[in-house]
Write a structure and sequence with these properties.
heterodimer; A: alpha+beta; six-stranded mixed β-sheet; 2 helices; 6 strands; B: alpha+beta; two-stranded antiparallel sheet; two-stranded antiparallel ribbon; elongated
């Protein structure tokens, strides 16, 4: 599972509905969690291939948020930041995260056209440190 | 430098170290420290140029305008004079693009003075060549390499003296 999938599941627990790696084009209000790669994983000397023991993944992800109302967008962003920024030593979607933190403040990207009309789009970027477990890509 | 081992009773052995020429040593270390800092600062700019080169391969190219606005700066000294840094980016000093550039597939036109950020952050848009996150991705891929590169630059500065 990627970080985006874990984060989407965690946001759902917090009452925030989000898509993964897809921003719906037919609605004005949407939240998407986009995988954006990450830093090189850290491998301890004793780990070999085929084992997850001790490997630390440092995935990054982006939240793309669309809302036709700037005021509602700001509320939604505040809720997302409150839910994600500063998570430490927590299990999200069955994966153990040492930390989740925001790396760039919300950035307004201007207007975007959707099938349901014009909307505003914002970007927030996060970084994670996750203990790899069997089944984690 | 001289070292004398003395014995004060049964249970308190200790080593006494005497430094001769400590002023010369301190001066030498300060000079070496400065040389190594300056070598690392120069290496920062070389590495920034390397990141820009790797980034340029990923920049979406419709007119070539964005990739042409890539820049590096440095080595620069922080206001408090304690840290060197280098800058790599696009749209130096908020360069403005013509209002006609950068129309996306969805018909959106970005604010001209945020064009590079707009292209960089719109991960939901498809580009026929290049991609979003064209600077962040090579930066992250090279982050570990960067520290090793600076350490190597510091070692080389020592070896050439």
């Amino acid at each position: 599972m990627t970080a985006a999938s874990d984060i989407r599941a965690y946001l759902a627990v917090k009452g925030i509905t989000a898509d993964v790696n897809n921003v719906p084009q037919d609605v004005t209000d949407a939240v998407a969690v986009m995988d954006t790669g990450g830093y090189t994983p850290t491998h301890p000397h004793h780990s070999g291939t085929g084992t997850a023991t001790g490997i630390i993944d440092r995935d990054t992800f982006q939240i793309l948020l669309r809302n036709k109302s700037k005021a509602s967008a700001e509320t939604a962003m505040a809720n997302i930041i409150a839910a994600l920024d500063g998570i430490t030593n927590a299990t999200l979607n069955g994966q153990y995260y040492l930390s989740v933190f925001m790396t760039t403040p919300p950035t307004y990207l201007g207007k975007a056209q959707t099938g349901a009309g014009e909307t505003n789009i914002y970007s927030l970027n996060f970084s994670t440190i996750r203990q790899r477990s069997a089944g984690t890509s | 430098m001289a070292a004398d081992k003395q014995d004060l009773g049964d249970s308190s052995p200790f080593v006494s170290v005497t430094l001769d020429g400590e002023q010369s040593l301190a001066s030498h270390l300060t000079m070496k420290s400065t040389e190594m800092c300056e070598a690392c600062a120069r290496a920062m700019l070389v590495f920034a140029n390397e990141i820009l080169a790797r980034s340029a391969r990923l920049v979406p190219k419709k007119t070539g305008e964005l990739v042409a606005r890539g820049f590096t700066e440095g080595p620069l000294l922080s206001d408090d004079g304690l840290q060197y840094y280098a800058v790599v980016g696009y749209e130096k000093h908020s360069d403005h693009f013509p209002k006609t550039s950068g129309t996306a597939d969805d018909g959106t036109k970005p604010k001209p003075d945020h064009y590079a950020v707009w292209v960089h952050e719109r991960t939901d848009l498809h580009h026929p060549n290049g991609q979003a996150k064209f600077l962040e991705e090579p930066y992250k891929a090279a982050a570990d390499e960067y520290l090793e590169y600076l350490a190597e630059a510091a070692k080389k500065s020592e070896a050439t003296k």
